[in-house]
Amino acid sequence: MEVEAIEGQPLVTRVDRRKAVFSLVSIALFTAYFYPSLAFLVSRWSSSEEFSHGFLVPLVSLFLLWRKREVMRETPLQTCVWGLPILAAGLLMQVASEWASVSFLKALAVPVALGGFAWYLVGTRMMRVVLFPYLFLYFAVPWPDFAIELLSVPLQHFSAAASTMLLGLVGVPIERDGVHMWTPRFDVEVAVPCSGIRSMVAILGIAALVGYLTQGRLWAKGVVFLSGIPITMLANVLRIAAIVVMGHYISQEFAMTFFHDYSSPFLFFISALSLLGVKKLVEKV
Q: Is there a single domain that holds both residue 165 and residue 255?
């Protein structure tokens, strides 16, 4: 028996080495094939304020995987052929994006193919362990332009109407026509960048992360995640109202330069604090 065990060790080592070489070659081929999509993602993250958080998303996913390292060590690896159809779908999306020049498909192809590739290599049990870190990668995918335009218009009108109502309640002399708001000393238009769509993209990712870390059942996590939408909208209303107050009582230059440009951290602080409050609340239920 001892002889058999000793003789078996080189075979196991050779098998492990083959798997390691296969994995490295597959990763290299995957990176080479999806290089245009990866380059597009980096370019979009660099040039777009809405999706500049994309650089942080893979790092957060890696951190979440690191937190699960003990469970991952105890989970057996097993190839699963069900990952191949998803991998094939990602490969076809890459081809279709190049053929039809659809940038959204080009960006979406990467996480789709990565999920299928990982599922095939590590198996279903491991994918269940790393499911959220994987799904979190989709927050790095830039939304299609038509979706941003579709959501921006109602968000513009809501932000303008809600800000006007809030300012009227606190005694600021304010009037509104559509997305145009004005006081006797200041006027402003709620444009697409001020609609809150930029903040919503990033804050939904934060809401998903906070929801994932929420202790409790699945419904509690879902409540925290979905609360990111109204929280973002209300925080943006407060930001617009504060800009109008600054412009009316201080100066238009101060409101539209310093405060307008540097009030985004205020928006994120309010939103993150509110999400943590919702988390604490649902954990007590």
A: yes
127: containing domain: 34-142
Please indicate, yes or no, whether residues 86 and 60 belong to a single structural domain of this protein. Answer: yes
Residues 261 and 181 grouped into a single domain: yes
Cα–Cα distance between 232 and 198 in angstroms, integer? 10
Among the candidates 109, 142, 175, a domain finishes at: 142
| Model confidence pLDDT, tens digit, residues 130-177 | 999 999 999 999 988 888 888 888 999 999 999 999 999 999 999 999
Q: Are 136 and 163 in a shared domain?
A: no
Question: Residue 264: what are its φ and ψ, rounded to 5°?
Answer: -60, -40
Q: What is the DSSP string of 121-149?
A: HH-HHHHHHTHHHHHHGGGGSPPPHHHHH
Looking at the chain, how many residues does it have?
285
Residue showing tokens 């513009």: 156
- Residue 180 DSSP SS3: strand
Burial label, 96 (beta-carbon count in 10 A; 0-12, 13-18, 19+): middle
Which of 200, 263, 202, 227 has its CA nearest to residue 60?
202
Residues 198 and 243 occupy one common structural domain: yes
For the chain, the first-to-last Cα distance in angstroms comes to 58
Q: How far apart are CA 266 and CA 263, in angstroms?
A: 5
Q: Which two tokens stand for residue 268?
A: 């994120």
Among residues 95, 118, 142, the one where a domain terminates is 142
In whole angstroms, give the CA distance from residue 200 to residue 203. Answer: 5
pLDDT at 74: 93
User: What would the pLDDT profile of 184-231 be if each residue is shown by its tens digit?
Assistant: 989 888 887 777 787 888 889 999 999 999 988 889 999 999 999 999
